[in-house]
Amino acid sequence: MPQVALFVTCLTDQFYPHVGLAVTKILERLGCEVHFPRDQTCCGQPFYNNGYEDEARELAKRMVRLFEAYPYVVTPSGSCCAMVREQFPRLLASDHAWAHGCEKLVASTYEFVEFLDKVLKVDFRQFKLSPRDVTYHYTCHLRGLGIKDQGVNILRQIDGVEFKPMEKTDQCCGFGGTFAVKYPAISGAIVEDKVACIRKTQAQTVICNDAGCTMNISGMLHRAAEPAQVKHIAELMAEAMGLDLSRW
User: Fold this and answer.
1) Quick one: what percent of the chain has pLDDT higher than 90?
2) What is the pTM of this model?
3) Among 212, 214, 211, 166, which residue's Cα sits nearest to residue 193?
4) Mean pLDDT in residue range 4-26
5) What is the rounded distance in angstroms from the CA atom of residue 111 to the CA atom of residue 11?
6) Shortest CA distance to 76 belongs to which of 156, 18, 1, 153?
7) For residues 28 and 243, what is the distance between their CA atoms, to the nearest angstrom?
8) Is 247 exposed, middle or buried (0-12, 13-18, 19+ CB in 10 A)?
9) Torsions phi, psi of 161, nearest 5?
10) pLDDT of residue 173
11) What pLDDT digit, counting tens, does each position of 135-157 carry?
């Protein structure tokens, strides 16, 4: 039985806790034993993106201390996964006391879909949804991790899903963490273009596997009075697997 620690991330915890629940229940259904280190906090990405490397370094050390003992660490957020795998080694490179733990954490940390694809090798053709049209937003950080078509491949396996390709599917949604706060006009223009591409697909559901991008895109869809809903792929998977997310 694979031992998995859930790194839920700040935005998922505060705004999309049902995604964390879906990820947990899916992993358990697939035979994993899921642990939740209760002392986990932010991975330090907001500090790092704004140049506060000392503060980010302390949070990286905290992450190493809390998670290094687990064979696998799984997170529903591509951007936080990228922070661990791409930036933690640089932040802790000169601190030999943390080097081994950092290396172990980096090697064991997976984005949720990546874990299903590379480690568990799940075949989703056994699961079924009521018919619906679905499109997919390729987030920037997932592409940076080398994760591109895995999510779409899973969606295509689920009976009942009609996949609708999106124009400019790998174009940024404009969120970019603090970029949306510092450059709201540019961010707004980018997400408007993203919503226009979503509109053309006429899909009922937009899959987005990063909470920040989900907030940005769903906010613009709401302001534009567009009916499409943004969901994490774990939510569709949970529904297809018949999992009840209304209770623990």
Assistant:
1) 87
2) 0.94
3) 166
4) 96
5) 15
6) 18
7) 11
8) exposed
9) -90, 125
10) 93
11) 999 988 887 788 889 999 999 99
113 is written with which tokens?
Answer: 């879909």
Please provide the DSSP assignment of the chain as one string: --EEEE---HHHHHH-HHHHHHHHHHHHHTT-EEE--TT----SHHHHHTT-HHHHHHHHHHHHHHHTTSSEEEES-HHHHHIIIIIHHHHTTT-HHHHHHHHHHHHHEEEHHHHIIIII---GGG-EEEEEEEEE---HHHHHTT--SHHHHHHHHSEEEEE---TTTTS--S-TTTHHHH-HHHHHHHHHHHHHHHHHHT-SEEE---HHHHHHHHHHHHHTT---EEE-HHHHHHHHTT---S--
Amino acid at 143: R
Residue whose tokens read 């000392």: 54
114 vs 111: CA distance, rounded Å: 5
Q: Rounded CA gap, 209 and 81, in Å?
A: 11
- Terminal-residue alpha carbon distance, the chain: 21
- What percent of the chain is modeled with pLDDT above 70? 100
Query: Which phi and psi (to 5°) does residue 170 adopt?
Result: -100, 10
